[in-house]
Automatic annotation (TrEMBL):
InterPro entries: SpoIIM-like
Residues that span the membrane, as ranges: 103-125, 182-207, 219-246, 267-288, 300-318
Protein name as it appears in the record: Stage II sporulation protein M
Pfam family, one: SpoIIM
Swiss-Prot/TrEMBL keywords: Membrane, Transmembrane, Transmembrane helix
Amino acid sequence: MKQSLFEQRHKAEWEQFSLMLGQLEHGKGASRIGGFPKDYRRLCQHLALAQERGYSSFLIDSLQQLVLRGHQQLYRHRSRLGANVAGFILAGFPRLVREQWRFVLAASLMFFGSLSGFALLVYLFPDLVYNLIPAEQVSELQSMYDPVAGHLGRTTERAASEDWVMFGYYIMHNIGIAFQTFASGLLLGLGSAFFLLFNGLMIGAVAGHLTHVGFGQSFWSFVIGHGAFELTSIALAGAAGLKLGWALIAPGRLTRTEALRLAAGKSVLLICGVMLLLLIAAFIEAYWSSMTAPKLMTKYLVGAALWALVATYLLFAGRARHAPE
């Protein structure tokens, strides 16, 4: 293809790309960065064709300059995205949790209150567990945490190479519970309240029953590690759902649609943080919680340290003025 025809076909693209570059270099047009990588790759292809076909040095130099400027903008925006993500993890998410403390407190009372309350009731009145959990499932739970079985949190022993499979399973299972608790908040918050109470009752029933039958050490040493992240995540997912429900119940001077839109922005950010916590919880559950080699005291100390870490992170991270935004 002759150079004149090549330029005629692609000149409009180059001019459009140059215009976009100018906007990005002046801090504008950030909303269009999503399609920028594709345009940049196409420009690189045009440069390669021009060099291969031996077009004029003027055309090649012009394209090279555009490619160089595009490269700088592409990776500058990628770095900014990474900084924004890091800022959210290190400061933005815990700040948001503290900002939404009313919903977090309400969700925590529902979840942890029902959990601890029903655990105590089942411990004192063992037959209550069968009102919530079928007998077959109770028997399966006992086999999972029987101290003489030689394994924790599962019905059979598994090879270490299978831990990654369980890691994936835990992620999907926990995210499913969290999303269910969050999304059901659209039912005027009643759905989130129901799943917070239901999950609290279920976990409490298991805890109370296993402690009553003498399997408490096996159970508590298993859950104390990943529970810091997993249980906290369920409560925070419920808080995000309650916020959605409250926007529909009490929109204030806004329309319900507008109130829901504003509430959803922060609720979705909360869920993003919850996903991170659940990822950590799944990793700990797959690779640490089910281990039988560590002594019980080691498990308890590590678990206590993880609970302290989560509490410190949510209560104090991002308070310094210089913390990343």
